[in-house]
Design a protein that fits this description.
alpha/beta; Arc Repressor Mutant, subunit A; Rossmann fold; 2 domains; seven-stranded mixed beta sheet; 14 helices; 9 strands
């Protein structure tokens, strides 16, 4: 294809550099995924400087592959290199992002999500051509564990210590003994975190994906809270409330995945107890495309294209999309009979909103 349009050479070079950086990062993501799955990162964390031979022995891997992989990690800034000794080392900061499961900065599980997106590319092409949806459960299994582990880090850091206290009177009700629903609970980490913190309350986690519910039950058993937490396969419009209603209903990064978010919000209003609260956690998105320019917006738009919007369409909905923005979320809840949303807290990734009928 030829063009008579004049090319600005500086802009061409800048954009070429940008795309090459993305291509390099794509290759790097595969290397990072190998580091997670082979235990290479875990073996490096806190170990001090290691030679390729030492790392290969610790991980039961072939040294020649390990040596080449280490080169990729140094080139990408994921590890430090000591040329004089020929050793490789993981800094505490790198370990916090790549290994430490208690760190709020942990991001390594997200590489499982990236792998699942590539695996689902053919389905996405068909969906683009036909307008059909792609249910959550149709994706590769690496999606489910990757999403669960990635969000668990943020929830562990903030849910109990910051987000719940930011809601009006909710902690007091939880301490006294409340009924709580976690709608779209996935693997149940958010549900279990709350159950561990508030032993007088009872919790139910709800999700349409049977595999996630099975995993959530295992999470509750391992945490020792299965006597106070139940998990059920149910839609956001089909779960039942206790006789006095739920004191707290939570949507953790889930409402925008639902085919009919207004119906989900209406059902929440019907099943709330007197003076009950809805806690809505959604991506921290602006209300316009131009307001979402940047790495976080790019990530969320990509995930929304492949996952969130695709699942919502599979349920027959128009799809909010992960970048719906606070104004659109307020419209949804207003249509469902709620009062104004209140922004209770926020992080670079999430808005924490409070709603009451």
């Amino acid at each position: 294809m030829t063009s008579t349009v004049e090319i600005d050479q500086a802009k061409l070079e800048a954009f070429t550099d940008q795309v090459f950086g993305d291509l390099s990062a794509s290759y790097g993501a595969v290397m990072a995924s190998l580091g997670v799955r082979l235990g290479l990162y875990e073996a490096l964390a806190g170990a001090g400087p290691l030679t390729p031979d030492e790392l290969a022995e610790r991980t039961d891997c072939a040294e020649r592959y390990v040596r080449e992989w280490l080169g990729s990690q140094v080139a990408g800034g994921y590890l430090d290199y000591h040329p004089d000794a020929g050793t490789y080392e993981m800094s505490p900061e790198q370990a916090a992002v790549l290994v430490d499961r208690t760190s709020p900065a942990l991001m390594a599980p997200a590489f499982h999500v990236v792998a699942s997106l590539w695996h689902g590319e053919d389905r996405a092409i068909e969906a683009f051509r036909t307008g059909a949806g792609v249910p959550w459960g149709d994706h590769h299994e690496r999606l489910f564990c990757g999403v669960a582990a990635f969000f668990r880090a943020g929830y562990s850091a903030s849910l109990v210590s910051e987000w719940l206290p930011a809601l009006d009177g909710v902690v007091e009700r939880l301490e006294a003994g409340a009924a709580v629903a976690d709608v779209g609970c996935g693997h149940g980490h958010s549900t279990v975190l709350m159950a561990e913190a508030f032993p007088n309350s009872r919790f139910v986690g709800l999700d349409v994906h049977p595999g996630s519910i099975a995993a959530a039950r295992e999470v509750a058993e391992e945490a020792g809270v299965a006597d106070r937490v139940t998990f059920e396969v149910a839609t956001a419009e089909g779960y039942e409330a206790p006789p006095s209603g739920f004191d707290l209903i939570c949507f953790f990064d889930a409402l925008h995945d639902m085919g009919d978010p207004v119906a989900a919000a209406r059902h929440a209003a019907r099943t709330l107890a007197d003076r009950g609260t809805v806690m809505l956690v959604e991506p921290n998105a602006a209300d316009s495309v131009e307001g979402n320019i940047g790495p976080i917006g790019r990530l969320y738009y990509g995930a929304s294209t492949m996952l969130c919007t695709a699942h919502a369409i599979s349920e027959g909905g128009e799809a909010l999309g992960a970048q719906a923005g606070e104004a659109r979320l307020a419209e949804v809840f207003a249509e469902a009979g709620f009062g104004p949303l209140r922004r209770a807290a926020e992080t670079p990734f999430n808005l924490i909103l409070e709603a009451r009928p």
